[in-house]
């Protein structure tokens, strides 16, 4: 067997392990990011730090592995701006805003309804036929979220936080749709350079909106109020957010795709809110009630059904 044949052998167990590891790192990043927000860093600035640092790291990777991908065509710019500003910058920013008002598990459950929004987008905007599974998935998500919010008790969740989380879900839907369009085009970019340029657009957006010379450096070095992460230096949390909470899990996801299909990966991806909620309980003391756990399971089941239906 020659080397080219070996290189294309799929090992699902390895793919699942890689994606599960990425989900864990993404999930832990929820607690890390919330701790950074509580240390005094504004959500917009934290998003700016994340995308700018992520862009610089990915730029180095592309420089070392695929320098030709640094060439940018004028025709690519509008789609990359949409992908980077709305799909990346706004997803992260609105997620950070929601973390300031909601428990991590709740914020992620709401954001994870994005695949259902994607299915509805293709149904109404693209006029693509969808089977009844999509409508069942939507109903399940609404019922599950109602259980998480315990609507029978009135307004138990912060309204602003819920709006921000749903905004993050819409932005994530735009990310999925625009990314799918970009990678499906002829002579499409590889995923690493595509993400690098997306992060570049997001970094440029923040640099124009809030220039670096106005960065509130006085908030750096602040302490996390309480919990196990309170003893971790802020610089270490920031390093985790950028390296282990962004770049490394992204590369793990890309590596996993060599061994498993996207539909299989999405199944493992459902573990992220579960892991994030567990870690938030251990590290931040955020507790889900039994009825909320059941509601969260219904939401994830609905999201899974929506993805399988497409």
Commentary on this structure:
It is a single chain. Mean pLDDT is 87; it is low at 1-7. The protein is built from 13 helices and no strands. It has one domain (12-214, 233-309). The two termini are 37 Å apart. The protein is mainly alpha-helical and 310 residues long. It has helices spanning 3-7, 12-38, 43-65, 77-99, 104-111, 114-124, 132-149, 159-184, 191-209, 234-256, 262-269, 271-284, 290-309. Helices cover 73% and strands 0% of the residues. Helix 7 (132-149) runs antiparallel to helix 13 (290-309). The radius of gyration is 19 Å and the shape is globular.
Task: Provide the descriptors you would attach to this structure in a database record.
310 residues, single chain, disordered N terminus, mainly alpha
Please outline the helices and strands.
Elements: H1 3-7, H2 12-38, H3 43-65, H4 77-99, H5 104-111, H6 114-124, H7 132-149, H8 159-184, H9 191-209, H10 234-256, H11 262-269, H12 271-284, H13 290-309
Helix pairs in contact: 2-10, 2-11, 2-12, 3-4, 3-9, 3-10, 4-8, 4-9, 5-8, 5-12, 6-8, 6-13, 7-13
